[in-house]
Amino acid sequence: MTTHIFDLKGTWTKGRNTSGHITTKNLSTRVSIPEVMDGPEIGTNPDEMLLGAASTCYMITLAAMIERSDIDIERIEVNSKGHVEVENEVITYKKIEHFPVIFLQEEPDENTLKTLNRFVQKSEESCMITRALAGNVEVVADGEIRF
What we know:
Layout: E1 9-12, E2 20-23, E3 28-31, H1 46-68, E4 73-87, E5 90-104, H2 110-126, H3 128-133, E6 138-141, E7 144-146
Helix pairs in contact: 1-2
């Protein structure tokens, strides 16, 4: 078994409506509560970061599956949406949706199209972030192929 450790250092100044800063090996950014949750909207926030982790993991997983199948693509674009509900002052991340578009250089045959559409769903199921969220946050994907 191999274990990977990822390190994050964070600081927060004063109370709820101020801001903090986080640093990892490849990321350094300010953080705060978003304006829609009555925060100061200084830098990013945990909701965007969770969405970013899920979307990035999904995109990388999809690209890896396509690469292993020897299908030649031009690029993948993903639009992801995070649904956060507030009820009785309890904030809950309910759902993440991924809307990938796979760009091909030429029109695919029917088998390639079926394979790509299968990968759109399978990538969501295979992503380690999605697996970490399982049972707590619904994660779905609905893709499109363009050539």
